[in-house]
Amino acid sequence: MKEFRTNRIKLITPDFKYLKDFHEYASKPNIGPMAGWMPHDNISTTKYVLEDMIKDKHTWFIIWLENDKMIGTIDLTPDEEGFIFKPTVYELGYSIHDAYWGKGIAVEASNLLIDYAFNELRVKELTARHSEQNSRSQRVLEKLGFEFVSAEYDERFRQFTFRVWKYRLTKYRYDRR
Q1: Nearest to 150 by CA among 172, 135, 132
Q2: pTM, rounded to two decimals
Q3: How far apart are alpha carbons 76 and 127 in whole angstroms?
């Protein structure tokens, strides 16, 4: 997987070197439910999830360069069911350790993958979603130029929220932001 870097962060392939950092933030009760997953109740759960991330090759670890700490994840996942050819729509997703909220990290990391998706993967559209109560993600997506599409009930998130807000960013809109 390609790696990315700014002055403050780098996006790297998930690595067992950061297992403890990953568990530290993934076990927090205010992180997972906002992103649609249960907090990790033990390090074995985190290890299992990390193994899946390594296999799937859609997720990057967000590393804070100042202290070489894994502070979140960000992913680009094909968002087309049953595609035959190369997918043209991907979903962007991210979660950040709460000690690093409010520092612009989600926007910074997302911009790296948005540029990669449109300029190298040649996607036509990116989608994203957040739980109805996650106003922080709403602001991140608005800053990135995503447009609100709909608020829908999503069975996968029923234990966390009533509705999921869906967004999209087209190549056309990306080129004009």
Answers
A1: 132
A2: 0.92
A3: 10
Q: Tokens at residue 141, please?
A: 């997506």
Report if residue 154 sits inside a domain: no
Chain CA centroid to CA 98, Å: 14
- The H or E element that residue 40 is part of is none
Cβ–Cβ under 8 Å, residues 107 and 146: no
Does residue 156 belong to any structural domain of this protein? Answer: no
Q: Are 57 and 68 in contact (CB under 8 A)?
A: no
Per the structure, the count of domains in the chain is 1
What CATH number has the domain bearing residue 37? 3.40.630.30
Mean pLDDT by 10 residues, the chain (177 residues): 97 97 94 83 96 95 98 91 72 96 97 97 94 90 97 69 86 93
Residue 59 within a domain = yes
Separation CA 133–CA 17 (nearest Å): 33
Beta strand segments in 79-145, E:
89-96, 125-131
Structural domain harbouring 104: 4-124
Element (DSSP H or E) covering residue 4: strand 4-5
Say what angle helices 43-56 and 19-26 make with each other, to 10 degrees: 110
Residue 148 maps to a domain: no
Any idea how long the chain is? 177
